[in-house]
Design a protein that fits this description.
Layout: E1 3-8, E2 14-18, H1 23-32, E3 40-43, H2 49-60, E4 64-69, E5 72-76, H3 87-91, H4 99-107, E6 109-112, H5 126-134, E7 138-142, E8 145-149, E9 157-159, H6 165-176, E10 181-185, H7 191-202, E11 206-208, E12 214-218, E13 226-229, H8 234-246, E14 250-254, H9 262-271, E15 274-277, E16 299-303, E17 312-315, H10 326-333, E18 338-344, H11 353-359, E19 363-367, E20 370-375, E21 383-385, H12 389-401, E22 405-409, H13 412-417, H14 421-426, E23 431-436
Parallel strand pairs: 2-14, 3-13, 9-10, 17-18, 21-22
Antiparallel strand pairs: 1-22, 1-23, 3-5, 4-5, 6-8, 7-8, 10-12, 11-12, 14-16, 15-16, 18-20, 19-20
Bound molecules: uridine-diphosphate-2(N-acetylglucosaminyl) butyric acid.
Uridine-diphosphate-2(N-acetylglucosaminyl) butyric acid is lined by residues 23-24, 27, 94-95, 118, 121-128, 162, 164-167, 323-324, 346-347, 389-390, 417.
């Protein structure tokens, strides 16, 4: 039994919607709570399935986690009883592999099977393991698990073969409790990495170069508890922006941080979508009102243009256009005039959603890691599947503009990363029902 979204297309979206905390920021921050025996509080936590998975992972290790508010978690890792999470939890979610860095840093031992996650490419973990080894850990394999052991990690210069997001996060977690100074060269600079680093700094770690490709960590002997606010989810914000654009609507997206969305908003403007700062909402700790490109204004107003134009897109690491917005952008470009090209340069197999869009009548073909979209095409309500979190968002967006009824199956994928996406879209005028099938 699974749930299906039944979406009536053709409604123009209007109104205001609020973005929740970022999935890909809260998961590493939850893993960071393993670095101390003191209480950690996370605020602005999205109520999504991936957070529930991570709670189970931490609890399987002896951690205590409770909701202390609607979107606030209290985490305590004073009594850790296991240093190896169960395989079924780790294989259902990629971010659970982050417990490796925390456990190795704090206890000198961690064991974990290769992590699962969306089917979007091979997704190796060599960057993580090579980094642990450079810090002095011995990496081995016992049955299906990777085992990392160390008699105290020693700071080192680590060259990351690729600026892997989770790889950088795992190494930040491990080096925060190592001896001496580490340099992470070719590190990822995504806002979610910055959110984790800021939490670690607030716990007592000395980290500089955050948000750049070279991060320096001066390891600490111990870290303390913290209260930390999770950044808004830039991918959820982008999904609402496309929902507004594809329906020719007018939507204010509260909590969207323009400084995290610059490549995306620039591309939307090239498509012909109108974007401007919304009503200013002061960001905690950030003074004054400002426009696009600043984090002072936490609201974007997005209005669909008269005639959308085809564009070329490259999905690359931050600050380039996010791969997680690539599939949603494809849905939008089915409505743009001309031929659009989308080149996915992060994952080698992230165009599977194209088959679902084609079922709806989209004129899309792929060659290698490029999708070529001919538009505008009238889309037709169909039976489609959410193949992964963002592929699911793409078909939901397409369904908003399709003629007739679309049924989106396998929406557990969507629920992993979006809090009540259907309800939030309905609050803007979409007609969506969630049914059991
Ligand atoms: N890679 C390697 N070696 C490694 C690790 C990665 O070659 O050791 C390669 C991958 O094969 C891929 C590229 O590096 O081609 C990027 O992978 P990365 O490690 O940066 O991705 P990730 O950390 O596994 C996170 C997000 C993804 C997001 C990517 C890229 C989390 C939990 N996941 O994955 O989010 O797409 O960064 O920004 O943070 C999503 O939210 O839907 C999602 C898939």
């Amino acid at each position: 039994m699974g749930q299906t979204l039944v979406i009536e297309g053709g409604r123009r979206l209007e109104g205001t919607v609020r973005v929740g905390g970022a999935k890909n920021a809260v998961l590493p921050c939850m893993a960071a709570a393993l670095l101390t025996g003191e209480d950690c509080y996370l605020e602005n936590v999205p109520r999504i399935a991936d957070v529930e998975f991570m709670i189970q992972v931490l609890e399987s290790l002896g951690g205590r986690v409770e909701w202390s508010g609607a979107h606030c978690l209290r985490l305590n890792a004073a009594n850790i009883t296991a240093l190896s999470p169960p395989a079924d939890l780790v294989t259902s979610q990629r971010a659970s592999f982050l417990v490796m860095g925390s456990l190795l840093g704090r206890f000198g031992y961690a064991a974990c099977p290769p992590p699962g996650g969306d089917v979007i490419g091979q997704r190796p973990i060599d960057v993580h393991l090579a980094g642990f080894a450079a810090l002095g850990a011995t990496i081995g394999r016992e049955a299906e698990k990777y085992v990392a052991k160390a008699q105290g990690l020693r700071g080192a210069t680590i060259f990351l073969d690729y600026p892997s997001v989770l790889g950088t996060e795992n190494l930040l977690l491990a080096t925060s409790l190592s001896q001496g100074r580490s340099l992470l060269v070719n590190a990822a600079c995504e806002p979610e990495v910055v959110c984790l680093a800021e939490m670690l700094q607030a716990m007592g770690a000395r980290i500089s170069g955050v948000g750049t490709h070279t991060i320096e960590v001066e390891g600490a002997a111990s870290l303390h508890g913290v209260a930390h606010n999770i950044i808004p989810d830039r991918i959820e914000a982008g999904t609402f922006a496309i929902a507004a654009a594809i329906t020719g609507g007018d939507v204010e997206i509260e909590g969207a941080r323009p400084d995290h969305l610059m490549a995306f908003t620039a591309k939307l403007q090239e498509v012909g979508v109108r974007i401007e700062p919304g009503r200013a909402i002061p960001l905690r700790g950030s003074p004054g009102p400002s426009g696009l490109g600043s984090k002072g204004n936490m609201c974007l107003r997005v209005r669909g243009g008269d005639a959308l134009r085809a564009v070329s897109i490259q999905a690359v690491p931050y600050p380039g256009l996010a791969t997680d917005l690539q599939a949603p952008m494809a849905a939008l470009l089915t409505q743009a005039h001309g031929t659009s090209y989308i080149n996915e340069r992060v994952f080698e197999n992230r165009l599977l959603y194209v088959g679902e869009l084609r079922k709806m009548g989209a004129e899309v073909v792929t060659t290698g890691t490029t999708a070529i979209i001919q538009g505008p095409t009238p889309l037709i309500g169909s039976q489609v599947r959410a193949l992964d979190v963002r592929a699911g968002a793409a078909v939901v967006l397409a369904a908003l503009v399709a003629r007739g009824t679309t049924r989106v199956g396998e929406i557990h994928h969507l629920d992993r990363g979006y809090e009540a996406l259907d309800q939030k879209l309905c609050s803007l005028g979409a007609v969506i029902q969630r049914i059991e099938e």
